[in-house]
Design goal:
Blueprint lengths: L5 H10 L5 H7 L4 H10 L6 H20 L39 E3 L5 E6 L3 E4 H10 L6 E5 L12 E5 H10 L4 H24 L1
Antiparallel strand pairs: 1-2, 2-3, 4-5
Helix pairs in contact: 2-3
């Protein structure tokens, strides 16, 4: 990198906060990049007064350049009443469907591994294990969910489905961290509580 005299550097440091960089470069016959390098090395910044002057000049320039494109009061837009078409060849025709359209009845596997079926347009999908349960037992009760008896989420046969409460589902997810003996005990207690609840309902 070319070395400059300390006298020149001192003059540039004195001028930099108060003048445009391009004017300083022209004054000392240097490239703008040289002025910026010197300013960076000496941690120089434009003064608040000069910054305000630059912003005012920029605002004035934008205002003047934008005036020619500005709508005047009462002026009618050139495209008023016109039907704008980007491309007749590529636009959707009435009744056309997108390339990724899936008909009602289509199935897909979600990122969580659940099988879903499309039940209505335009894009209404429902878990297949819910549909299979409701086909046999009717709507899923409030605060209940249908879970799988086995880890296979794609086995949506009614024999692999089980209706549990939200609390029971949470308990199932929690007890997996306990030893096998404790898990069995917790499940037995839960089953006993459910039997008692059902017995009470029958008595009433």
């Amino acid at each position: 990198m070319r070395k400059y005299s300390q006298e020149l550097i001192d003059k540039i440091c004195q001028d930099y906060p108060h003048y445009y960089t391009k004017d300083i470069a022209a004054k000392y016959s240097l490239k703008i990049s040289v002025i910026y390098n010197i300013a960076t090395r000496h941690n120089l910044h434009k003064s608040p007064t000069h910054t305000a002057r630059m912003l005012a000049a920029t605002f004035k320039s934008l205002e003047e350049s934008g005036r020619m494109h500005r709508f005047e009061k009462g002026q009618t837009a050139w495209n008023k009443g016109k039907h704008m078409r980007v491309s007749e060849r590529t636009e959707f025709k009435k009744g056309n469907k997108p390339h990724n359209y899936r008909p009602v009845g289509s199935e897909r596997v979600t990122k969580d591994g659940y099988l879903e079926r499309k039940i209505a347009d335009p894009s209404k999908w429902k878990p297949v294990h819910h549909l299979e349960w409701e086909k046999v037992n009717g709507p899923i009760p409030a605060r209940h969910k249908v879970i799988f008896k086995t880890p296979d989420k794609l086995n949506v046969s009614i024999d692999n489905l089980l209706l549990v409460t939200f609390e029971e589902a949470m308990l199932r997810n929690t007890i997996h961290r306990y030893p096998t003996e404790i898990v069995k005990a917790i499940k037995s207690i839960s089953k006993l509580k459910k039997t008692i609840r059902n017995y009470g309902k029958e008595q009433n």
